[in-house]
Amino acid sequence: MGTASRYRRERVIRIKRKLEIVRKAAHEKKAAEPVALNVAGACSFADLFFICSGQQKRQIQAIADAIQDSLKKQKVSPYHVEGYSAGEWILMDYGDLVVHIFNPERRDFFNLERLWGDLPRLEVAERPKKKRTSGSRRI
Description:
Layout: H1 3-28, E1 32-38, E2 48-53, H2 57-73, E3 80-82, E4 89-93, E5 97-102, H3 104-110, H4 112-115, E6 121-122
Parallel strand pairs: 2-5
Antiparallel strand pairs: 1-2, 1-6, 3-4, 4-5
Helix pairs in contact: 1-2
């Protein structure tokens, strides 16, 4: 495997790992309707958008804080954060990954999913935990 090919593979792994960290952090703060859009090739400044919602300012800020803290543990810091103090739409730029956290009104108004609607989506919804059947009960 050539160096360029190995670099691309490692970069894909890194961005998928970042996305998983972001997804988990947002889920822990009860983010609504998470969506990840693969904007690589269609967008010059990012490869992925992660979009989610919070119901009010404090929750939106808590989602942003959780994402930033989780990625910081992996030594990943945002290049730029916008909208934190207003708490209506927080944009977090991690280079290849851009996180958008909206309140419902702003999300409906800007409708990024429609704007970028022809691009592939990645699965980010929390997977339901398997329920145990009566025969597999632990004592």
